[in-house]
Amino acid sequence: MAISQMGKLTILAPNQYIDELLAQVQGLQQMQVIDLNDVRNKINLTDEVHDVIEAYVDDVDLDQVDRSVMAELDERKYEIERAIELVENYVPKPSFMERMRKGKPKVSFRQIEFHGQAFEEAEIVERVKYLTSQIDVLEERIESYREKYDELSPWRKLEITPNELRRFSFVRGVIGRIPSTNEDQFFHFIKENDELEYEMVFVDENDYGIIVFLKDPENRELLQELREYQFVPLNYSSNKLPKELLDEYDEVIEQSKESRKLILAELKDSQELLDELKLQYEYVSNLSEREQAKVMVARSNHLMVIQGWIEKENEDRFIHDLQNRFGEELVIRKTDIREDEQDEIPTKLKNNWLVRPFENLVTMYGTPHYNEVDPTPYVMPFFTVFFGMMLADLGYGLILFIATLIPMLFFNFDEGTYENVKLVNILSWSVMLWGAIYGSFFGYTIEWMQLIDLQNQVIEVLGISVAIGLVHMAIAFALNVYLQHKRGNNAIAVAEGVVWIAVIFAIVLAVLGMAFESLSFLLTLAGWIGAISMIAMVIAYIVEAGSIAGLGNGLLGLINGVSYFGDIISYARLMALGLSGLSIGAAFNLIVSELPGVARFTLGVLIFIALHLFNMFLSVLTGAVHSLRLIFVEFFGKFYTGNGKPFKPLQVEEKYVEIQNHEIMED
């Protein structure tokens, strides 16, 4: 349970192997490539390798090619991802449970590479874009022709067109509509005028469709009077009768529907194509990662140098795999890590199955420096205890346990999600344990189980909380002592670690002296330990400064020490939040118990569930936040910097798939 030991490898090979070599390194997913351009003056390379680096820096064309290729690959990734989204809109979606059980498909790196090289990417992406765009075109066409059809359909019985009416010599015919709200006045006007005749074409709820005949074709004034009665002439320019056009519209609509149906059927049956597109995305993403790594490689027209960080336990196997693949075409050397490179070494955490889920909590604050202590093994027990004390309900713990155990057993999560679910499952045990200690089950008190009555033993629980806090802080100071001693800062180790451990010990002695009359002499001993500790801190700062000027730092240390007593009080929240959650749960139960008999077992059940789910949500939220605060502020603040660099090997993105194994590529 520590930070994995890192080694550094230098690989020299002919420049023509750069693509193949990077592919092999990516397939193994064990080495983080070092950017030789950024650190070339800090790395202890031979003159030969240094010359290669300088030649690469001066060779602008190579860099430009790499960056243009990266831009092209980014565009390909975008197009493939867009095609995936388009196909996903039509392929039947599996249910949530089915997706969770199935998880990401498991493939090998070799499968991705072979598939990507054979896949007709451009043609298929264009085909997807064409099909989906055709659906839009067809839907627009159907909508457009439906509007035309609906507008013309009332005139289906019309047996003459406006163009034909215009050819009449002795009479003038006008086709149009009048609103049904104005029919009485309009028809009265026509009947009163001997110069007008009409023929009804259709009647609907809004309009009348009619043909009006003017006996005098030149009488424009009469036509104007018709318009005053809201007569609207038909805008129709075709020489075909409406029923003929309507049949044509209907045929276009049906043909468009059939074409759309065929395209939709093809897209809905494209699950295999969708899977292939996702594999292709991973392949292009692999190429993109390798192109980015190329920029970090030192190379000339004939030779290249790759350097990278790798876990020491993987070094020999990694070298063996590459040499088996390339033989004498490349040279691999284990390179010594210089003292001034310590800040460049990436950090890879390595913990057992129980501690590993808590690594995410540590990296939320910051990745440990390579030469720091991995605090995860210390975070695990304390965060678990803190969270459990703040929720402290057997019922809530059971819900969390079941809600995480079932997915862990039956769902196929990726590694990150699985670790997060397992984290909550581990925490649920602590919630159940403290719930049993307090005898709390959904706010009800179970007396036969209860070891501590939280509501009536507040002082005792407060004492337990502070005692846990003192142990927590003592471990933090002890870790600071270890780290400062490791760095050679022994005086600081005394001033900022040993002294405060002694003060905590003195506090414990003082409490024992006050609690037991027979141990009252411990009060005097505690006072002496405290006084000696303060003097030792001032002396340590003077020794560190090498002069009396360190006295100022010593006095500041005394002043800053007051904040540590505030930190001790912070642990009282373990009692306070546990008590508040228990009290709120009991209050909710009281509300339900006040309901009448029938309502209590009908509506009351729903209210009980809703209120306790709400209380559990708030308790989980506050428990997580305040537990993190105790870790980040009261614990990490005393020794941990978190300014390390996470280990990022050249690997597969795994957005849509999960890599089964790390392997070397074969021809």
TrEMBL record:
One of its GO terms (cellular component) is vacuolar proton-transporting V-type ATPase complex. The keyword rRNA-binding does not apply. Its main location: membrane. It comes from the Bacteria. The keyword Cell inner membrane does not apply. The chain crosses the membrane at residues 378-411, 423-446, 458-479, 491-516, 528-559, 571-592, 598-621. It is found in: Membrane. It is a multi-pass membrane protein. InterPro entries: V-ATPase_116kDa_su. One of its GO terms (molecular function) is ATPase binding. Belongs to the V-ATPase 116 kDa subunit family. This is Uncharacterized protein. It comes from Suicoccus acidiformans.
